[in-house]
Amino acid sequence: MKKISLNKLDEFFAAIAASQTLYLPVEDGRKGAKFDAWKEGAVYSTAANTSRSAKDFFFPQVEDMASFKVDGKEIEVYDTRKESEDFVVFGVRACDAKSFDILDSVYLADPVDSYYETRRQHGLIMTMACNKPTETCFCSAFGIDAANPAGDISCWMTDSELLLEANTEKGEALLNALSMLEDADASAADDTKAAIQSILDKLPLKGLSTESFGGDKLMELFHSDKWNALSESCLGCGTCTFVCPTCQCYDIRDYDTGHGVMRYRCWDSCMYSDFTLCAHGNTRTTQMQRFRQRFMHKLVYYPGNNNGVFGCVGCGRCMRSCPISMNIVKVMKTLEG
Amino acid sequence: MQEVMVKRASELLADGTVVRVLGWKNGEFAYDPTPAVFDSADALSAFVYNDFCASNLSKYLIDLCKKDGKTLVFLKPCDSYSFNQLLTEHRVDREKVYIIGLACDGKVDEAKLREAGCEGILGITTDGDTVKVDTLYGEVSVAKADVLGERCVTCKSRQVVVYDELIGENGEVNADCGRFDQVAALEAMTPDERYEFWRGELSRCIRCNACRNICPACSCVNCVFDNPKSGISQKAAADTFEENMFHIIRAFHVAGRCTDCGECSRVCPQHIPLHLLNRKFIKDMNECYGEYQAGAEAGSRAPLVNYTLDDCEPSVVYEREAGK
After folding, report:
1. Are residues B115 and B183 in the same domain?
2. Which of chain A's termini has less CB crowding within 10 Å, N or C?
3. Predicted confidence band of residue B314 (pLDDT cuts 50, 70, 90)
4. What number is the ipTM of this complex?
């Protein structure tokens, strides 16, 4: 384990940023925090979490895939990707770090999504243990330990020091390259971990159970008579899907640039009326069906296809952002009850 | 107030006046009630009304009016303006709605509570003008006035403008609410400054469409932005031009019909002050065509759809300074 005094945090960030772009959470001036590229004077935000998730780094909301130049019957295709550069994301929470595993199992499974893969290869994740988990946190329901976050490097913040431990070769290499780091006792973070654990034990959603969900509950849950009431006030906006770190659906669109075509993909939302729109129309014609799809995907279909791993990491963003305060916790408790 | 509301709702269900009740259902925490429909006195045990019942329920009545029987709805003053506007646009049926108007002294903004240092919220109690928040990290007391939603700080009216009965005393229109002050500040900027301001705000948009979907004035059955053949996408902005234009087009579309209920800004997960676009239109219309408040009266004609001989000439550049 390595350590550095919090007084030297700026120096530490500058050293990382000297060789690659460093992203970290900063106050957004709008009642929240956001990931931003570090520059001189940037102040690391200790907010419970960023308003948007960290998935943007690997799966951005909009990305150009290819462009086409059309000349009569000739079509030329251009790969619009630029060489990716290495980057570091500091301050990722345990829940978001776990969300990358969930995205990986979709995008890195055969056929590999090379757009996503390139970003994953170039990115290094430094996680931060959650000193102040909040009432909307329920990562423990999905086996995530906010006191011991994953990632290439795990970090803990004590009153005076930042403690760092590498979990991968890539992480080890970065820590070794940072000469200002000092060695620390393997047990240096123990007090912080214990303090975090004592708060995790008091979280109001601590007892949230996933027992009633999973691939084997498909028919029973799909036909539950509770979906109608649950979805009745859903506005059909995409807030929950767009702030969600594990929502992974996208749409591919062609944009007429006037002299050719730009093919881009963008996040899609199963809450939208044109989600999976086919030539014959749409498979889901009511908001209840769309609403059900979102939660069935996270609680039934995804675990059914991925050895019981759920498609939710308990970050609680949907609980804070939904305009009508409907969310996965209310859905789970209602379906269970 | 909650007890009186539940009592009246139970009575109206029991005597057959209404067949369902549209209100709010308690949530997981003290601050997250969800709009819900209740169809029996038993179901009303989950009914809640508190400082966080901010949702404007009027838009749900478009669908509920298509169902059999009458719906009881609870409308706060700003929600009642929206209802009147929907009535004017023939989107709801007055005969199928029983309205209980609620006196309102403003709703608390959860985000402002968090700004005031409330994380790990376990319970919230309001004691007069003070909001007491019990958190995992200790108790926090804040003045309610400091954590009111932005629209409540500049509340335009505490008057319920359409109702069958009232709970509490009806309030007054507040002409001096100062709701156009921020617009005036934007108008005083240079075009470049103003452009920078709006780029800063609109560039944060994630195109979740929450503003559109919550908006009672956005009641098109099929929105133009949801048409994949329209050449634009509602899911993501292809470029910064689209990013700006989505919100500006929407503001144009609701101009003259927007009652300034403020739901767009309340629900924005990125905290973009979208209501300022709408208020700019309202302010301009007031200055060009005389004071007009959408939804103040059902059936009123908005200036933009009402020709009068002394309308200001659209071809003449309107001089704001002249105060014409």
Report:
1. no
2. C
3. low
4. 0.93
